[in-house]
Sequence to fold (132 residues):
Amino acid sequence: MKLTPEQKRQRSNALAAAELRRTALVSAIETYNAAVRAAFEALEQAKTDHNEALAEVAESLHAIGEELRASIEEKSERWQEGDAGSAASDWASSYEDFAFEEWEPYEPEEIEAPDTFDETFEEQLALATEAP
Fold:
């Protein structure tokens, strides 16, 4: 059994159209992945800057806490053990103990062209060119 010339033309046109669409899909995926990579790099830099700023805040607050602690220790033992001293000690501790958790974004996964499309395309191409 043979394909008619019209059937061969239809087959060729369909395969060519599918290949064009496949090429467009691969191109769109590559463009998407490049944009995601660029956006993630910018996000990583912003995250680093943010975490560095928080580290500077923590360092400043720790220094303030140490200064407060030194001022408290200059007071009498009686004052330190009283309500005012206890409150001041708690206040100094809140500065000394300040901590933050660095934020780490999840790295996005790139999209890959579907393998099944390539396999299916190759199988269909083989079937379309074979005669029973």
